[in-house]
Automatic annotation (TrEMBL):
UniProt domain Alliinase C-terminal: residue ranges: 20-260
Signal peptide annotation: none
Keyword Transferase assigned: yes
Gene3D superfamilies on file: Aspartate Aminotransferase, domain 1 (3.90.1150.10), Type I PLP-dependent aspartate aminotransferase-like (Major domain) (3.40.640.10)
Cofactor field: pyridoxal 5'-phosphate
Record key words, sorted: Aminotransferase, Pyridoxal phosphate, Transferase
Database matches in InterPro entries: Alliinase_C, Ethylene_sulfur-biosynth, PyrdxlP-dep_Trfase, PyrdxlP-dep_Trfase_major, PyrdxlP-dep_Trfase_small
Protein name: Tryptophan aminotransferase 1
Length: 301
């Protein structure tokens, strides 16, 4: 059985899959499945197709590309929350994965959940968790339930005076993406995917897509390793080659805490040499961008 990723890994596309899928698949060394790469080029009926939507690292909305009675599609919806993307349609897939790490920022709680239509598949998934971790921490379950309950209570009866997590999160993401786009445009050497928007059924308004991560490209001809170049400017990112993509691309995190943003402030100015870059990095000006390199509470995934 082939474990499939929906994103093509062609040089022209440059929107690779989540870096953990092939690594975990290869690590398990299962005799039941293997990593088979691009779902668009897969031939066969038996498969597991992994659909990460919004995609990590570029935030694009993805759909399953394969269709077979013998195949299964697993939709990873870790980032399908209104602070990151417009909720344009009801999620109604056979297997859907979620996590409090990205929905509320409580990564340290280490709790995720799945909505599964097939009772037998759900039973097998539960058994796997039982064998793999001897169950799930009750403390973590109680904390996650309390957090999600508090978030839900903020939207009861449409009372706008309540504290609303998703509204707060969306304002933060809009501001961070505004700063990043302005900085990238002013630099003259960095480019980002075009901004997209859609009608958000949750917020009942048109909203822009503000992904948890930015898929940033360095367009300077003499820079082949964008992550290394930015590291020299005291900006930590994940290289595109960690996602099987061109190293001129990097993933920049936009979901850190404010203190992280202050620590990792940087200037996306084009400089002639490393000495100029070191002098420019701490300076505040119109090109400054405050971006984090880690998810709140835990290392980003």
């Amino acid at each position: 059985m082939g474990a499939e990723e929906v994103m093509p890994l062609t040089p022209e596309n440059n929107t690779p899959p989540s870096m953990s899928y092939p690594a975990v698949t290869d690590f398990l060394r299962s005799g039941l499945f293997r990593w088979a790469g691009d779902a668009n080029s897969f031939v066969g009926d038996a498969y597991i197709e992994l659909v990460c939507s919004p995609n990590n690292p570029d935030g694009a909305i993805r759909d399953a590309v394969l269709s077979s009675g013998a195949g299964k599609a697993v939709h990873d919806l870790a980032y399908y929350w209104p602070q990151y993307t417009p909720i344009t349609r009801r999620a109604d897939h056979d297997i859907m994965l979620f996590t409090v790490s990205k929905s509320t920022g409580h990564a340290g709680t280490r709790i995720g959940w799945a909505l599964v239509k097939d009772r037998e598949v759900a039973r097998r998934m539960t058994k796997f968790v039982e064998l793999n971790t001897i169950g799930v921490s009750k403390d973590s379950q109680l904390r996650a339930a309390k957090v999600l309950s508090a978030v839900s209570d903020g939207y009861v009866d449409g009372d706008a005076s309540r504290h609303r997590l998703f509204d707060f999160g969306r304002r933060k993401m809009v501001e961070r993406w505004r700063m990043l786009r302005e900085a990238a445009a002013a630099s003259g050497i960095f480019s980002l995917p075009a901004e997209t928007s859609g009608r958000c059924n949750f917020a009942n308004e048109t909203a822009a897509n503000n992904p948890a991560f930015a898929w940033l490209r360095c367009d300077r001809e003499d820079v082949e390793d964008c992550a290394g170049f930015l590291r020299g400017h005291k900006i930590l990112t994940r290289s595109g080659n960690q996602f099987g993509a061109d190293p001129r691309y990097v993933r920049v995190s936009a979901v850190g805490k404010e203190c992280d943003n202050e620590t990792n402030e940087a200037v996306f100015d084009e400089t002639d040499d490393e000495e100029d870059a070191a002098e420019a990095a701490p300076r505040r000006n119109d090109h400054e961008v405050h971006m984090s390199t880690g998810a709140a509470g835990s290392e980003e995934e």
